[in-house]
Every structure is written in structure tokens, then in C-alpha cells.
Design a protein that fits this description.
Layout (H helix, E strand, L loop, with lengths): L10 E2 L4 E2 L10 E3 L9 E5 L1 H6 L9 H9 L3 E2 L5 E3 L3 E3 L2 E3 L7 E8 L5 E7 L14 E2 H16 L6 E13 L3 E11 L5 H9 L3 H15 L9 H23 L1 E2 L21 E2 L23 H20 L3 H13 L1 H17 L8 H14 L4 H9 L9 H4 L6 H14 L6 H11 L7 H14 L3 H10 L10 H4 L16
Parallel strand pairs: 1-5
Antiparallel strand pairs: 2-9, 3-6, 4-12, 7-8, 9-10, 10-13, 11-13, 12-13, 14-15
Helix pairs in contact: 3-15, 3-16, 4-5, 4-7, 5-7, 6-7, 6-8, 6-9, 7-8, 9-14, 10-13, 11-14, 15-16
The structure holds adenosine monophosphate and magnesium ion.
Length: 502
């Protein structure tokens, strides 16, 4: 591990960087610079994101850019840090986690004034690495790049991928694998587990400094509230309720919703074993380490609320000096998560079904459809996309019916659905367009990601990665050139397990 300020760390000039987290008290982080890698090669550089952040990284020479993304060079004036945090992992308390293979390069302020973290992942050991090597294998880097960018294109708040490079070195996992470094961008990397870190150390001042920091950075209106810390909790609850509803509506399973993997900003973070389900199944679990199904698809709202209760505990002393009063107020805010989630979900489901108005039986109608899909193992994404093309003309039903092994139930359902559509003031053309905005044609399917990873691992072949990226760039458009990416996996392609690969 290099020490900060080491004169032999190469520097490159990067515009619009500044840092605020590094001005917080010393025990919030450890200054550390990346450990250089032997022979980096660029896999991908997200030039649009770089420009949106005002970084102008496209003005660097190829060599400078590569060195920066590999952690072989750091920005002029930057003081990279590894952040301290703790967390509950699968319900078990771990008092110290922290950035063990990630380093915060710096922060950037874009043209709109939004501040974002830029972080390397897989760039070498830090004081928080514990037994780990501080490195990332190519597979998890590919998965995070693809899925985080896909989430963004799908309109879901998520960290972004700025670049990925191979290192020219191997990392030892179950086998020896090519190493890689991801550079990611986040609204911030403050997690529920960051609050827990200070709270568990009885560091009341640390919790308050962190709370004031995130209020200023993410919830500025909370500062004006009668009780700013309760308003902060309300804000996080609101954003997480909206976020998890978006996941559920898209069939996304995060897979490792530990408190250290839940952001305060409301962005999806950490794409380790995440997966989109193919056939609709409320109990679906992909992650190889989630043996109890704690983070199964339909458990996600409950898991999020559990995490928010852990956040609330850390804020109690700030919410009210009297503990009973504080618990009462915080409980009421956290209890509001479920009704908020359900409201977001139902309004998102109405859009998926083509309803611009709200009618009494909508929830039941949605559940009947989901039950039929579940009973017949129907692909979730395809079913909703096909439904988007159905009009009053019976011929348009054929692609939808073809997804069901016994079409009687779905035929009955579509009759009820068409009846319900009569209450909608829209033309069927407008309705189809609305539905397509809510029902993507393409999602990052597991078997496609598996193919991307296999090619990268076997021969550093990134052609499948670039092709998949392109297919996922405009997921709601009706594109004929991405047909292969819209298909559900065949039996032999089907992925049953995903692995963190850390
Ligand atoms: P995750 O499961 O990816 O959320 O990581 C949980 C914790 O393990 C975090 O503190 C990570 O920094 C740490 N970690 C994961 N992989 C490694 C690694 N290869 N080397 C060091 N620390 C790691
Ligand atoms: Mg994590």
C-alpha cells in the first residue's frame, strides 16, 4: 500500500474535482492511494458520463486516461481515501467493514451543481481490506458495468460506470482470473452502514457530523425542517420506497441488501450477485450466498424497511433527547415505508398495464395477472412488453398468448383488462406508447451477462460486452436490431445461481 503524498505517484490533470468527505474528521476514512497494476488495458470509457460530470477526461492522452482508470495515476490535487463503515450482513452485525477494495478518487461537481463521488473498485488493499486482496476479478466488474448502466438507462437511480480496465494481473478466487478495475460514480457512497459505524462506537458526535453532511449534500430541505434528523430519515425512507418499487416493477433482485449496501442517497449500489428474473416467481433467489432467501425478490421491501430501522436507531439521540419519544417518532417514519412502497408499486403497475387513471379493482387485476404468470412460468419482461402491443384487434393478442402454456386463464384476464381499459380516456396508440415507456423491451438478462463474462474471462474478448451495452442503451424503444437480447433464456442457457465473486 502506498502512503499518501508519496512523491512517485504519477498525477494527471482532471477538471472540476473537489472533495468534501475528506474534510470530515480523520476517523471517517483513511487516506490511501491505489496500488499500481502491471499492464492495464482499457475495456470501456463512458465518455458521455465523463462530459456530463464536466471532467473532460477525453482531453487526456490515452495513456494518462488508462493510468488514471487503472489507479496507476491519481488526479492532481486529489487526496484519495477509503471510507469507514460497518453493517449488518444477512442480519449479522459486523462492526467494521469499510472500503476494502475501493478507494474514493475524488468528488466532481457537474454543470448543474450536483456533486458526485468518483471511486475506483479493485484498486488494491486498504486499511479495511481484512483478509481480502483489494482486487476485483473481471466478472464482477463486467456485471457491475453492464447492470449499473442498464439501470440508469431504465430510469432507476443507480451508481454509474465511468470506466473499466483490465490490470494485466491475475486474481486468485476459486480459480485464477483476469483482474480488472471499475471506476464508478455515485451521488455519494454514504451507506446505512456508515451511520452504524459511528453509532456502534458510541460516537454521537460522529453520527451528528455525518447526518449534517448528508443533509447538506442529499437532503438540503431537511435542514429547514422543525426536526432536521427526523426529516432526514423521512427523506431516506421516501427515496428507498420509490427505489425498491422500481426494482420490483422491473423484476430486479439486488441479492445482497446488507445495510452496507444501501445508500443514503437512494441510489442502487453494489451489483455483486444481482439479477433480473426471467420467469415471474415471487420467491426467486439467484445469489449463491443467500441460502435462506433473505433477499428473495418479494422480500426486498421488507429487507429495505429492516435496514431503514437500523438507520433510524443510529439517529435516535439526534431525533429527541427522550428515548421513548425518539423511538415513537422514528418508528412512525419507518412504518410509513410500506404504504409508500405500495403506492409507488401500484402506480408503476398501473403504467405497466396502460392505466393513466386509478380505479378500485386495479390492484386485484394486477395480482391475478402475476398469479397466472407465476403458475405458468411466464417471462415477466416479455409478458408486459407483449401486453403493451395488444389493442382491441384480436390478432394483436397472439404474441402474448404464445407465452402461456395454457392460454385460457390469460384470455379471461385480457377480457377483464380490455373492459377496464374502457375507463381510460386514451387512444390505443397513446396507451401502447405509455405502456412501452413502463415495460422495457430489453433488460440485462443473466444468460447474456454470463456470456459477456465468459468471453472476458476466457480470452479478454469484450465484443459481447459492447454488443450487450449497445442493446441496453435505449431499453424502452421498439428496436428490431436487438431481437436476440429480448429473448428469454433457453433451458440450456438458463442461469440458476449468481456469485459475488469478491
Ligand atoms: P460486498 O459484499 O461487496 O458489499 O463487500 C463487503 C465488504 O467486503 C466490504 O467491506 C468490501 O470492501 C470487502 N471486500 C469485498 N471484496 C474484497 C476484496 N477482494 N478485498 C478486500 N476487501 C473486500
Ligand atoms: Mg458493498
Amino acid at each position: 500500500m502506498d502512503t499518501i503524498g508519496s512523491p512517485d505517484v504519477p498525477r494527471v490533470h482532471v477538471r472540476s474535482l473537489s472533495s468534501t468527505y475528506g474534510r470530515l474528521p480523520d476517523h471517517f476514512y483513511s487516506p490511501v492511494v491505489p496500488t499500481p497494476v502491471a499492464a492495464p488495458q482499457l475495456i470501456a470509457f463512458n465518455v458521455d458520463l465523463s462530459r456530463a460530470l464536466g471532467l473532460d477526461l477525453d482531453r487526456l492522452s490515452d495513456n494518462e486516461r488508462l493510468a488514471l482508470f487503472a489507479g496507476n495515476a491519481i488526479p492532481e490535487g486529489a487526496t484519495p481515501i477509503a471510507m469507514a463503515y460497518a453493517g449488518h450482513q444477512f442480519g449479522n452485525w459486523v462492526p467494521q467493514l469499510g472500503d476494502g477494495r475501493a478507494i474514493l478518487m475524488s468528488e466532481a461537481v457537474d454543470a448543474t451543481g450536483a456533486r458526485r463521488d468518483i471511486q475506483w473498485k479493485g484498486c488494491g488493499r486498504t486499511p479495511y481490506s481484512r483478509g481480502g486482496d483489494g482486487r476485483a476479478a473481471i466478472g464482477p466488474v463486467m456485471r457491475e458495468y453492464v447492470v449499473s448502466e442498464a439501470m440508469h438507462a431504465l430510469g432507476v437511480p443507480a451508481t454509474r460506470a465511468l470506466a473499466a480496465v483490465t490490470t494485466g494481473e491475475s486474481v486468485r478466487r476459486e480459480t485464477s482470473l483476469p483482474g480488472a478495475v471499475l471506476t464508478r460514480v455515485a451521488a455519494s457512497h454514504v451507506r446505512v452502514g456508515t451511520f452504524q459505524y459511528f453509532s456502534a462506537r458510541q460516537d454521537a458526535e460522529g453520527v451528528q457530523v455525518l447526518a449534517d453532511y448528508v443533509i447538506a449534500r442529499h437532503y438540503p430541505s431537511a435542514a429547514q425542517a422543525a426536526n432536521p434528523y427526523l426529516a432526514l430519515l423521512e427523506g431516506v425512507v421516501q427515496r428507498q420506497a420509490a427505489l425498491v418499487a422500481r426494482w420490483m416493477l422491473l423484476g430486479f433482485i439486488h441479492g445482497v441488501m446488507n445495510t452496507d449496501n444501501m445508500t443514503i442517497s437512494g441510489e442502487t449500489i453494489d451489483f455483486g450477485p444481482c439479477a433480473f428474473m426471467d420467469a415471474y416467481d415471487p420467491d426467486k433467489v439467484f445469489s449463491s450466498i443467500d441460502s435462506m432467501g433473505r433477499y428473495a425478490y418479494s422480500n426486498q421491501p421488507k429487507a429495505a424497511q429492516w435496514n431503514l430501522a437500523r438507520l433510524a436507531e443510529t439517529l435516535l439521540p439526534l431525533i429527541h433527547p427522550d428515548q421513548v419519544t425518539a423511538v415513537e417518532r422514528a418508528t412512525s417514519v419507518v412504518s410509513d415505508f410500506m404504504p409508500q412502497f405500495e403506492q409507488h408499486w401500484l402506480s408503476g403497475m398501473r403504467a405497466k398495464l396502460g392505466f393513466a387513471t386509478a380505479q378500485a379493482g386495479d390492484l386485484e387485476l394486477a395480482h391475478v395477472l402475476l398469479d397466472i404468470m407465476h403458475g405458468q412460468n411466464v417471462d415477466y419482461t416479455l409478458a408486459f412488453r407483449c401486453l403493451s402491443g395488444v389493442t382491441q384487434d384480436d390478432a394483436t393478442l397472439a404474441p402474448l398468448l404464445a407465452l402461456f402454456s395454457s392460454p385460457a386463464a390469460i384470455e379471461t384476464w385480457t377480457r377483464q383488462w380490455r373492459q377496464r381499459l374502457k375507463a381510460e380516456p386514451m387512444s390505443s396508440g397513446d396507451r401502447c406508447a405509455l405502456m412501452r415507456q413502463a415495460n422495457p423491451q430489453v433488460i440485462p438478462r443473466n444468460h447474456q451477462i454470463a456470456a459477456v463474462i465468459a468471453a472476458a474471462e476466457a480470452s479478454l474478448d469484450f465484443a459481447p460486452f459492447h454488443a450487450l451495452q449497445d442493446a441496453l442503451a435505449r431499453p424502452y424503444e421498439e428496436r428490431s436490431d436487438v431481437y436476440a437480447y429480448t429473448l428469454a433464456p433457453t433451458e440450456s442457457e438458463r442461469v440458476r445461481r449468481t456469485f459475488c465473486g469478491t
